């Protein structure tokens, strides 16, 4: 990967955001100029791709979300902030895998752990799986609220029982 989310910027041309950019790069394989039209909405800055010879398979466009969300996740005994559930759309116009020459989704489940190459059906499957897990989390939330209330009530009852035992002793 030659780009990260932090280097992706809005199109720097005079064209409006919705207009696909057309540009060209030098193929490091043939030495020839190759014209490319960006996926509509592509937010990658292709300046470096255009300026230095590139292998065609390394050229890709993406539409990314910049609203990263992190949660404190514990993998070492000390919780650290890890990015969760970010997603983007990529297309690799010269990919060796034909399926990557059409836009596909990439989901980062948690920092650097990806589900890639998702077509709309695949992405829907991921969304449905996560929606089921969210339902399970909501059930756990309800159970937790109930467990805390029961626990607090039991503490009070147990204290009352102990007081009564001391009084009658
Ligand atoms: Zn692009």
Automatic annotation (TrEMBL):
Q: Identify the InterPro entries for this entry.
A: DUF6907
Region (Disordered): which ranges? 1-25
The organism sits in which domain of life? Answer: Bacteria
UniProt lists compositionally biased (Low complexity) regions at: 1-17
Read off the Pfam families from this record. DUF6907
Report the protein name in the record: Uncharacterized protein
């Amino acid at each position: 990967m030659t780009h990260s989310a932090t280097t992706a910027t809005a199109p720097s041309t005079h064209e409006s955001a919705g207009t696909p950019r057309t540009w060209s790069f030098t193929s490091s394989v043939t030495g020839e100029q190759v014209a490319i039209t960006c996926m509509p909405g592509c937010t990658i800055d292709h300046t470096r791709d255009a300026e230095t010879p590139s292998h065609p398979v390394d050229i890709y466009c993406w539409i990314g979300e910049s609203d990263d969300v992190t949660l404190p996740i514990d993998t070492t005994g000390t919780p650290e902030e890890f990015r969760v559930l970010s997603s983007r759309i990529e297309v690799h116009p010269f990919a060796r895998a034909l399926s990557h020459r059409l836009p596909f989704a990439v989901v980062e489940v948690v920092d650097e752990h990806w589900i890639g190459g998702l077509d709309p059906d695949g992405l829907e499957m991921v969304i449905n799986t996560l929606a089921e897990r969210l339902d399970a989390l909501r059930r756990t939330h309800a159970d937790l609220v109930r467990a805390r209330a029961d626990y607090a009530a039991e503490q009070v009852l147990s204290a009352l029982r102990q007081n009564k035992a001391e009084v009658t002793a």
